[in-house]
Amino acid sequence: MFDYVIVGGGRAGVSAVEGIRELDPSGSILLVGAESHLPYDRPPLSKQLWSGKKEIADIFIHERGFFDHDGVELASVEHVTEIQPGKKTIVTDRGRRDRYGKLLLATGGTPRRLQIPGAELEGVLYFRTLDDYIELSRAPKGKSIIVVGGGFIGSEIAAALSTHGAHVTMVFPGRRMLARVFPESLADAIQEQYEQRGIRILSEDVPASFTPRDGRLAVETRRGERLACDSIVVGVGIEPEIGLASSAGLALENGIELNELLESSAPGIFAAGDNANFPYRALGKRMRVEHWDNAVSQGKAAGRNMAGAGEPFDYLPYFFSDLFEFGYEAVGDVSSSLTTYADWQEENETGVVYYLEGGRVRGVLLCNIWGKLDEARALIRSGVRVSERDLLGAVHA
What we know:
By secondary structure, this protein is of the alpha/beta class. The chain is built from ten helices and 25 strands.
């Protein structure tokens, strides 16, 4: 019997351990993770590990001693296969059965897989884990690599591989990379920078098949392009991992449906991270957020609430990226489907993009501007109607 069982050994799961310990210093905790590594942060896999700002040893969240002491047990390379809410019991693929007082599902997401011939061939990598990074980083220099996807992971991996001397081709269905977030003019400017660095862009196209050929991979696209490459990296998003929640009868809607305390429809079962659909209080709607900062804050909040805090989750998480020399931080709802207004110091390089709905700021994109997230959060939380004149210098560089 454990006081707390956490399913998922990623950032949200470890943050939940930290949150529990803030209120309950001695309750027994079981953390079940599928990977063989100690829990680690994912953002460096497509960012700082490639730039040299971090080494693999730097990305682990805690040393082994954290899990070996203070009543925390880490079960690695183990999968929970069943939850029995009525019996408050989990079952794993190693045959263990453990009862729990409170349960957290921090199962994250699973990479979307292509449904085309050859999609599971050797050399096709669905980038997600530390092992994926290790495999991809071995010898990219001089290799020809196709990156499928023009979103967050695709854009970061393409930049990283190009910086390390690979010959990169990007294939994605939209007209512009990062089109779901960036305004058209900014997306065009970033895409032009990629092309100037030698990255070939095949927009408005998708792979139709992969075929092994002479030790390499042949790729045919829907528009008839025929390409040869050494490897393929697929980064087309993730699906929330909800299998356990579904089989346990939890309410689902684009993830696990939670209340403001991050508790599911089954009392005593909580969720946090990529799989969590929660009431986003500052925006007044339900959302699921797939970013590191949300996993950190939401995991800790869920852990505290599992330990009895009773605190509504009202944090405004942010996310960040580095694309060559262009870096950005974003907070709130940064969907390009909203009305956007850009306050540039240097057009498409340095400045602030505001995302508006009904005349109110719903999201803020800080381009090569740092240390201003709290100002951006305050503007979103205010909920006041603004004009373009009001937004000039609203977040100061």
